[in-house]
Amino acid sequence: MIDKPLFLIGGEFTDQSEHPSFPVVNPCTEENLWDCPQAGPSHVAEAVKHAKAAQSAWADTHPSARATLLRKTADILASRVEAIGKALSLEVGRPYKMAVGEPTRGVEILHWIAGEADRIGGETLTSRAGGRISIVREPVGIVAGITPWNFPVGQALQKLGPALAAGCPIILRPAEIAPLTATLLVQCFVDAGFPKGVIQMLHGAPQPISDAIFDNPDIRKVAFTGSTAVGKMLLAKAAASVKRTSMELGGHSPVIVCADADLDNAAAQTAMLKFANSGQVCIAPTRFYVHEDVAEAFTQKLVAQAEARVLGDSQNPDSTMGPLAHAGQRAKLEELIADAIAKGATVRTGGARPAGLDVGYFLEPTVLADVPADARIMHEEPFGPVALITTFSDLDEAIARANDSEYGLASYGFTTDLATSEKLSRGLQAGVIAINNIDVSGHESPFGGIKQSGIGREAGRYGILEYMNIKATHVTW
Q: CA-CA distance, 17 to 7, in Å (whole number)?
């Protein structure tokens, strides 16, 4: 297996570049893990050339043949879960025993997408003007996938899998924080036998590569996961050549805990997702609106869950939570926490750098109570292990406050009353909602946001459709 980050261009792995390489830092130790080659506009142009050469043949390949290659890739990935999990753990800082879960789930993602490839089809309508209307789905063309560092396997597969299943060549630009993870993942596709030029990958600074991607008229779609601020800039660039886009952007997920909720379940479920990956999860429950009758009881249970986390090096088997991925993220969180405290919030646990972990970008799992509505952290996505608790007395009020955000990715509710659960489902403004659980991103279900949390959907049968054009042909005799 490959042991360092490399580009994949035209079927060949390489590190050849006129640009200086950049260091990849272990967030647990702040030490250099390895150096990564950096691509530039010339690499994008070369990758597009190879993609164009492969495009027609890949589009003409029967979907069932594409599905076979995806299933073969899944089998290879399954045999490399430990190696990919180790690279992910080192680069992102997630404890190893949790990091291996991501490529393991990636195997399931590929098998699901392969099944969807087998089901690509069209329909035939009878025209009111006479004759038949044949409706078919065709590949959109060359795709660029731009993915984040927090889930470097899963997010890449949600671009690679559907694009390839739909018959599109794809150029992947993974986050520079986790380049070896991405290299090892892409090697699985190469070893499975995907044709040269159908899948390619470039590492490097975001702006030069993304500028070259959006300036190239042969790239017809861009799939991006990242912050809302960056998504807005990319959408503006896409307008120049009317590129199709799918955007999975930021989130600031509310949780409504009703007076009749199972508090143990609510605390355990939300803590599991809140502190997973050190809180660096776009769907992480963050703004907790808890009924005043149960607020203190729920807060105590959530605090106990937070304090049960064991911070430490990602390679330590006792660790259940690692550091933040980079120093800038921790500094931003510390600023937001300080602002909330200054405006009246109470620290129930955490809120500081942990004693004894002076190296690495660690921050204690934190629960803030009585967080005022004007605190910055109630409006700016914290993207870290911080839970914000405030109370409510009226459910309509709670739903209105939960919806009072530019974000609309995920929302959660906890109640034992069926009518209340229906009211939450209807009233909460989000692309994905979970009631009495945190399961909002299953393979079989569409995933994506509304408002400023994104455009388009991933997963389920909807994921492949994002990579296909619809063509209608009216035939008369």
A: 10
List 282, 364, 381, 466, catalytic entry: 282
Tokens 């430490």 belong to which residue?
312
- 3-state secondary structure (DSSP) of residue 144: strand
Of 1.20.120.420, 3.40.309.10, 3.40.50.1820, 3.30.70.330, the CATH number of 253-443 is 3.40.309.10
Residue pair 430/440 in contact by the 8 Å Cβ criterion:
no
Based on the residue annotation, tell me whether 188 is a catalytic residue of this protein: no
What 3-state class would DSSP assign to 158?
A: helix
Whether residue 28 lies in the annotated active site? no
Largest CA distance in the chain: 81
Q: Where in the chain is the domain with CATH 3.40.605.10?
A: 7-249+453-475
Is residue 458 within 8 A of residue 431, CB to CB? The reply is: no
- Three-state DSSP class for residue 383: coil
The one catalytic residue among 248, 364, 458, 466: 248
Condensed to tens digits (0 to 9), the pLDDT of residues 269-323 reads 999 999 999 999 999 999 999 999 999 999 999 999 999 999 999 999 999 999 9
Residue with tokens 């291996």: 100
Q: Candidates 3.40.605.10, 3.40.640.10, 3.20.20.70, 1.10.10.410; correct CATH number of 7-249+453-475?
A: 3.40.605.10
Nearest to 334 by CA among 368, 294, 305: 368
Question: Residues 57-82: pLDDT tens digits?
Answer: 999 999 999 999 999 999 999 999 99
